[in-house]
């Protein structure tokens, strides 16, 4: 597992996480914490995950609405996403820090018994999330 971190601000409103499609591995991105950091104003900061559905249409889903006075931090309990994926600050000026991890599973090593810390509630019917088109 590799640690992942990024920060969304008024000047950097989005971050796209991509992987090399040719590397013959499965990639899982798990988001664990979204939090406001130093310099944040007491305003609503909405973070969205932007991707593409199975018809290749852009979709965006809000995952956090943070406000300094009432909810400065949100634990997402390793919310799993399939790269490529874009995180976007849809409202507010941040700074909002996102932290999580990136797991690489080499297809030739993968056995189904090794799903030890992947929970049963994985949404297997969800389409892969694709990067946002600018």
Automatic annotation (TrEMBL):
Gene3D superfamilies assigned to the protein according to its UniProt record, in alphabetical order: Nucleoplasmin core domain (2.60.120.340)
InterPro entries xref list: Nucleoplasmin, Nucleoplasmin_core_dom, Nucleoplasmin_core_dom_sf
Cellular location(s): Nucleus, Nucleolus
Positions of the UniProt region annotated as Disordered: 112-134
Residue ranges of every copy of the Nucleoplasmin core domain listed in the record: 4-103
Job description of the protein: Plays a role in the regulation of diverse cellular processes such as ribosome biogenesis, chromatin remodeling or protein chaperoning. Modulates the histone chaperone function and the RNA-binding activity of nucleolar phosphoprotein B23/NPM. Efficiently mediates chromatin remodeling when included in a pentamer containing NPM3 and NPM.
Name recorded for this polypeptide: Nucleoplasmin-3
Species annotation: Molothrus ater (Brown-headed cowbird)
Gene expressing this chain: Npm3
């Amino acid at each position: 597992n590799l640690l992942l971190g990024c920060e969304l601000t008024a000047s950097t409103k989005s971050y796209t996480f991509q992987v090399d499609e040719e590397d013959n591995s499965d990639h899982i991105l798990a988001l664990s914490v979204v939090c406001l950091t130093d310099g944040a104003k007491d305003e609503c900061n909405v973070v969205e995950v932007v991707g593409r559905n199975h018809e290749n249409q852009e979709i965006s889903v809000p995952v956090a609405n943070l406000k300094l006075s009432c909810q400065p931090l949100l634990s997402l309990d390793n919310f799993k996403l399939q790269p490529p994926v874009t995180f976007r600050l849809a409202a507010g000026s941040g700074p909002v820090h996102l932290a999580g991890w990136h797991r690489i599973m080499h297809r030739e090593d993968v056995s189904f018994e090794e799903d030890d810390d992947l929970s049963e509630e994985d949404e297997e019917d969800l389409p892969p999330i694709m990067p946002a088109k600018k």
